[in-house]
# Entry
Amino acid sequence: MSAHRAVATLGALVACGGVVVSTTGCDRLPGRPTAAQVAAEGTAEWTIQVFNTSCRGCHAQGTEGAAVPLMESDYWRAATDEQVARAVLEGQGMLMPAFGPSAGGPFTASQASALTRGMRAIWGGATRQSSEISGTVVAGNASNGKSVFDAACAGCHGAAGSAGSVTDPMYLRLVSDQGLWTAVVAGRAALGSPAWNEPMPGRPSGLTATEVADVVAYLSSQRPRSMSETQP
# Structure
């Protein structure tokens, strides 16, 4: 074969390859799941896939995540489906981003609801005990809350607390009232932080529902209104 003919043949092969690539497009890229690999919405497999890609970084089991674990039944006994789905769509404070369409997120309202139902089915354990305490914020008395906080919480969560301060102005600017409520109600067992009705310093029987509302009201009242208030 002459050099000229070899070059022409190589050019034809390259052109043919370009046609193949252009017709297959991104559907053939390594790592892109095929239609058969994408789980059907609402199934347990789909729930796990969505959780692992969108939630696990903050809400993982035990001490892995930065936020309240969603893989523990303690959370689901306190949370309502409406609360969780709203948090997915609208976010909570500055710590929890919104995943709903109004914020440019990837989840529709129906998908947020399906994810919530799926997570409860997998990790919920016992049915939510709605008669014990609300899953969403209830108005409380901030003055009474300070007394409860000083007696039961400050040793671990005060300015000099052993578990990190929840009265720090920067923290309070980041977390929503619902985030505070959830943290008090559900606790963090893996970090040694009790749930609201478990023994704690100064409160062998834990807190009452009224005291939870008062503590959250107190913490909320300490939230700075501007960045200048967070400066030392």
Remarks:
- The chain has three domains: 1-32, 38-123, 142-230.
- Residues 38-123 form a domain with the Cytochrome Bc1 Complex; Chain D, domain 2 fold (CATH 1.10.760.10).
- Residues 2-25 have pLDDT under 50 and may be disordered.
- The first helix runs from residue 3 to 24.
